């Protein structure tokens, strides 16, 4: 029972009894100045703050008992016990009882048939609303009827200490180091929790899948000058160093789409003009890193404070939608590779066949020479599909183009992993098992889902596509090594000209890194150890130099994986009063999970025999989960839902109290329009200027100052979390009354 009570709980003792020396009842309601322990009186070791004593003449025990029950009910009411703490005299208590009785539903004893089920009320009175009414505040208004208080404009991060410009050389960087240094030791021992293990396994699988996907695409774009192994090594080296020394170790580094587009364009340009691609890329990387270091030295990260919710949510929603779209795109591509025979009829099963036959004598010379070499006769019908095509044979039959069951099984694994992850993540709020077990299942939701569906795949035995990682540690292309020489491959002027494309890379790196950092450091995550925008960018620049010399891809903060990392490390109250929802405490801020994830990514090359049992559709299901989960709590998504929601069912969002609904819908429409334009841009060759267009979102938001009042923007585009704003408004009303 004690585990279920909040840490600072206080008791209220209700004592009733009969005595023979009283003619009329005696009642006392006592509030002690300080809560005290009253021995065995309270039954549990909780200090007592309130005492209610009722003594009366004999013969009315039942009546006294009912009065005691009524007082106990009153004291268990959140609003009344708030009044009891603050009451100055008897009149305050009576006013509190009156307020309580106004909200009570009374059932007449004679007319209540216990056999009839009493329907619950359509709307329960909100305790916030009751508190407001008690404190004299006006009734809550919806759809922007609340009187204007002038507003303060759609705020960015102007009040954020980390983004104040110092005006000194490297001033911001030095402040970041001083801010983070006291927490460095705790960043390691704070990870001593079972939750960290679940985060490591989940983020590791997400990172490996991302590295393989990106490495494959990069290999195609650069003719294997950079491939899957370079992607693995780069991810491991940059990620581990960043998590060890950066300002915000919860950020996960990865390669991004615009970087891939840039690499493809750069490779084609180098090929067409006869330049050495890796050497040209090295100089672009060095120039870009130098430009990033100038941005660090001049405190340029202070510009982040102009990123409002409009820009942040536009960017994070787009990246989440890309994750969701890519997961489905990969599954559809898989369905094209393993087509389903839609004409199949069970009754015609005897008609289906596929055999290998020789095509023509000319095409069979290789096979003929093989027969002479081994002096044996090989039956064409005994060859596998691969052997048949290799030796110039042809596949004949109406079943050759189809692969049974693979596509269907893949989609079962894909949707199964996603659904199971979602269900197990919400398991902590279910009624089954003790709290500890529920929390453990919820923490390990994604890992359990992956294990379950890997087991199902192994049990069914269908040959679904599996995770294949490189098993040898050597560059993908035999034409290159692990160190790129900076001179000798290109004319001297190329080294200087590289500064021009480097400018685009710098904008790309700065925007991707800092918007993700802003999203990670949001106030609703309740981070206590502070951010380090300048320090993060400093390490991204240093790692860019290392990657350029080693011919590895460039890395920057990855939005969706970073949000998934934070979600997997969220902490909630372990002990709460019976029936009370656990409260969000913050995030387990530490460096260990990130470091171990990237070390594991590096040694994945040696774990290839184990990883080959994981089906790719299961990992695509994890990608879908990450995309959908990162949209949770995004105000933009809440406003999209409002478009389909009748007025009476709309939740009590703070902006709906102050801004007319049509203005809310106009704001949402403009955000959708910007998102659609960014999506179209991303899908074309112009994707290379994608970061510049993200910067354009800031300009669009600035232009909205002429379309919306500062009052409207202060509620629609404020970076303060919804809950905090509600709380502040309610407190303001109370103070006004006092």
Description:
- The structure is a single chain.
- This protein is mainly alpha-helical and 738 residues long.
- It folds into three domains: 2-109, Mannitol-specific EII, Chain A, CATH 3.40.930; 171-337 and 411-574 and 582-633, no CATH class; 634-737, no CATH class.
- The protein contains 29 helices and nine strands.
- The strands form four sheets. It has a three-stranded mixed beta sheet with strand order 1-3-2, covered by helices on one side.
- The relative contact order is 0.15.
Labels describing this entry:
single chain; 3-stranded mixed β-sheet; two-stranded antiparallel sheet; 53% helix; sodium:bicarbonate symporter activity
Number of helical regions: 29
Report the major sheet: 3 strands, mixed
Radius of gyration: 33 Å
Regarding quaternary structure, what we see is single chain
Strand content: 5-15%
Count of DSSP strands: 9
Gap between N and C termini: 38 Å
Structural class of the secondary elements?
Answer: mainly alpha
Quick check: average pLDDT?
A: 76
What shape does the CA trace take?
A: globular
| Strand numbers in spatial order across the main sheet | 1-3-2
What percent of residues adopt helix (DSSP H or I)?
40-55%
Counting structural domains, the number is 3
